[in-house]
Amino acid sequence: MGEMPWLGLYRGHLPERFEVPDVSLWQLFEDAVGEHGGRVALVLGERRVTFHELREMAERLAGALHGLGVRKGDRVGLMLPNVPQYVIGFFAAMRLGAVVTQLNPMYVERELEHILKDSGARVAIVYDGAYERVRAVRGKVPLETVIVAPLQGGRPRLERGDVYLEELLEENAGAAPEVEMDPAEDLAALQYTGGTTGRSKGAMLTHRNLVANVLQNLAIATVEPGEYVGEKAVAALPYFHVYGLTCVMLFGIKAGTQQLLVPRFEAQAVVELVRRERPALFPGVPTMFSALVASGEDLRESGFGGIRFYNSGGAPLPVGLKHAFQERVGVPLLEGYGLSEASPTTHANPRFLGEGRDGSIGIPLPATDARVVDVESGERELAPGEEGELVVRGPQVMKGYWNMPEETGRVLRDGWLYTGDIARMDEEGYFYIVDRKKDLIVASGYNVYPREVEEVLYECPGVSEAAVIGVPDPYRGETVKAFVVKEGGSELTGEEVIEFCRDRLAAYKVPKAVEFREELPKSTVGKILRRVLAGEEREAASR
User: Fold this and answer.
1) What separation in angstroms does the CA of 204 have from each of 73, 254, 316?
2) Secondary structure of residue 327 in the 3-state scheme
3) Closest C-alpha to 404, from 242, 193, 206
4) What pLDDT shows up at residue 531?
5) Selection from 4, 6, 2 nearest residue 357 by Cα
6) Do 125 and 141 contact (CB within 8 A), yes or no?
7) 3-class secondary-structure state, position 347
8) How far, in Å, CA of 451 to CA of 323, rounded?
9) Which of 268, 323, 330, 484 has the highest local Cβ count within 10 Å?
10) Which residues of 174-210 are buried (b: 16+ CB within 10 A; e: fewer)?
11) What is the pLDDT of residue 522?
């Protein structure tokens, strides 16, 4: 295959050989505390938490979790927004060699039941607003103890055995035992991602996967070594999403930054935060940058012009939005690419190479190989400019899917991760995503799988047939649209369909539009053809 064309772009900026140290995430954290101890690590409103304080609370919680029976390899669910309790809970689990099961705070009972049952999580740390949902599935999952963090001012009545987080931290639970770790083999997180079958898959991310990706992201974001020590970063990307976990939370710990915690993104509140705190870093998704452009605020005067590094991921970045944002702030907005199965980042436009290429996800990260192969066999490498499936390999690629050997074998072949995305590479090694091989919908940076939504639609009284596709949305990137055939005599309305879904799906999965039809396009064997519906939508949009 010869030398990868992008390697020349790194010369003079990075060492010839990119090394990944053989350390666990707890050791990465310990080293950061040793280096930055008295500095502020987390900021939430008036609250400041130093690296030393963070470690002390994580150590104390680790001892308490051990007292509850948590051992190496056990699953610990985290269902929290961006608050100090999330970071404390994450590193407490790492201290014990436990595996964090990421739980989106927006999950409804059906989604929670599947993930808690599939992962086998015995303990979960949840915010108070989620406690009733967790309690509702209690008898159907292996969950033994729920630890509640009262974030919304409420203190729900707890079942026997459950406990409030602050009370657990106040108890003298004893020290956590030392745990031997194999970073390359031991799991750190189960990151659940949807599947074409509609069943969420748990990507098994090892300590080495996540440590590698933190260091890779730091390398492409840095011009001068140590430049972010003591600086501030906007932490608006949710930590329960792998993009926020790696590129904000773990990145900030390693880099020694102050993370400005944003539990829920609201453009005006973020403008005020930037105006007050004057951060240096802002990782986000396109919808965040779109909302800021639409806010009407003078972003440059509000402090956005002083931010040195903006990176966008989680969904395609429209070129028009990139230009509009850059014009408003006077700083490049750099696009990257990744997926849960790669911890997540595989490509980026490095900061030291300037503004990046319009429409491009950039070049592979250090120690990462990428190529474009033919869609039919997945074996023939294509020449620059040709379109095919993007495949990648590197130290950040997952170990596999939990309890899903067939799915693992389908996407991991001879060390290469088959992304399911259609891409092309130019002569210099910059990659461009052309389309998705799968029917995945990316709405506001979250993955939505049509079949999961369709299965809920088929439960709705009055629905005979249903199909779901993603349609372009200037704010969300894509939004969910449902096509429904009603049962004879049904007077079902679109509003009723949406309301039915709202009770059974996370908000970002709920259809924003419903179109009723007499029939849906089908193949000769009766399979509903989503691609025909998508083509009709594109044609209608062009008209």
Assistant:
1) 12, 22, 25
2) helix
3) 193
4) 83
5) 6
6) no
7) strand
8) 35
9) 484
10) eebeebebebeebbbbbbbbbbbeeebbbbbbbbbbb
11) 80
Distance, in Å, from the CA atom of 74 to the CA atom of 8, rounded to the nearest integer, reads 44
pLDDT score recorded for residue 196:
37
Hey, CA dihedral for 316, 319, 323, 324, is it positive or negative? negative
DSSP states of 90-124: HHHHHHHT-EEEE--TT--HHHHHHHHHHHT-SEE
Which residues lie closer than 8 Å to 365 by C-beta, 6 or more apart?
Answer: 213, 216, 217, 219, 220, 345, 346, 347, 348, 394, 396
| CA 234/CA 277 separation, integer angstroms | 9
| CB contact burial 17-50 (16+ within 10 A = b; e otherwise) | ebebeebbbbbbbbebbeebeebbbbbbeeeebb
Chunked into runs of 10 residues, the chain (543 residues) has average pLDDT values of 83 90 98 98 97 97 96 98 98 98 93 96 97 95 96 87 93 86 98 67 98 98 95 96 96 98 96 98 91 92 97 86 93 96 98 94 97 94 95 98 96 96 94 80 86 88 91 89 91 96 94 95 71 88 79
Nearest Cα neighbor of 367 from 55, 82, 14, 88 is: 14
Q: Which domains does the chain have, with CATH numbers?
A: 27-36+49-180 (3.40.50.980), 441-542 (3.30.300.30)
> Which token pair is 303?
């402090």
**What is the rounded CA–CA span in Å between residue 197 and residue 246?**
27
Token readout for 286 is: 């396109």
Residue 390 forms beta bridges with which residues?
A: 372
Quick one: which of 478, 466, 475, 520 has its CA closest to 294?
475
Predicted confidence at residue 172, as pLDDT, reads 66
Is the Cβ–Cβ distance between 538 and 480 less than 8 Å? Answer: no
Of 51, 53, 60, 95, nearest in space to 76 by CA? 95
Instruction: Compute how many other C-beta atoms are within 10 angstroms of the C-beta atom of residue 518.
Output: 6
Q: State the DSSP string of 130-156.
A: GHHHHHHTGGGS---EEEEE--SS--P
Would you say 256 and 35 are in contact if contact means Cβ atoms under 8 Å apart? yes
- Show Cβ contacts of residue 542 under 8 Å, excluding neighbours closer than 6 positions: none
The structure's pTM equals: 0.86
- 3-state DSSP assignment of residue 11: strand
pLDDT on residue 28: 98
- Decide: 361 and 368 in contact? Cβ < 8 Å: no
Mapped onto helix, strand or coil, the DSSP state of residue 244 is helix
Report the pLDDT value the prediction gives residue 2, as an integer from 0 to 100. Answer: 60
Q: List, as one string, the DSSP characters of 349-372.
A: --GGG-S--TT--BEEPTT-EEEE
What H or E segment, with its residue span, contains residue 7?
helix 7-10
User: What are all long-range contacts of 267-276, with beta carbons under 8 Å and residues at least 24 apart?
Assistant: 267/291, 267/292, 267/294, 267/295, 268/295, 268/297, 270/234, 270/236, 271/295, 271/297, 271/299, 271/302, 273/234, 274/234, 274/302, 274/303, 274/304, 274/307, 275/302, 275/303
